[in-house]
């Protein structure tokens, strides 16, 4: 389903915050505009008033990913449905700038923007994109990075549903940490845990022998 690619908008927004590190990069109009990517027309409508509204939508989207990651798929769907109701979309057929080999428009579904402000438009795209992604691939395809302290959101598109990290960097960091932990455990197990027989005998008093 072509509309599933709109789910990337949700990932971009959620990952502007790192809760564990208490970091938030959603601090300016320019940062918000960058989230729109190629949707430059919608981005031009962003104002300072959109900053708190974007943060509020971000919290709700992160909750969707959190519940899905924890296995509460019904809860994730309920939250996503509430977003869909609050931020409805207007789908339409489009063929702009996309031509097939014969020079004819390659028709596809597109989300039209008739929103009252930038936040409403962006939230609608996020909700619809996640909805299509979830219904096509499953709620277990929405996850949060398992490499502490990162908790970035990601969309699992692996063939065997095995993704656990948001990026190759986090995967490498987690593998290195696991390797070092195994080495420490092996070292602890190889160390003497008690006194040798000779040492034990030497430590006894004459009356105990």
TrEMBL record:
Residue spans of biased composition, Polar residues class: 196-209
Ranges of residues in domain Zinc finger CGNR: 141-183
InterPro entries (alphabetical): ABATE (IPR010852), ABATE_dom_sf (IPR023286), Znf_CGNR (IPR021005)
One protein family per Pfam: ABATE
Annotated segments matching region Disordered: 184-209
PANTHER family from the UniProt entry: BLL6575 PROTEIN
Protein's recorded name: CGNR zinc finger domain-containing protein
Lineage: Bacteria, Bacillati, Actinomycetota, Actinomycetes, Kitasatosporales
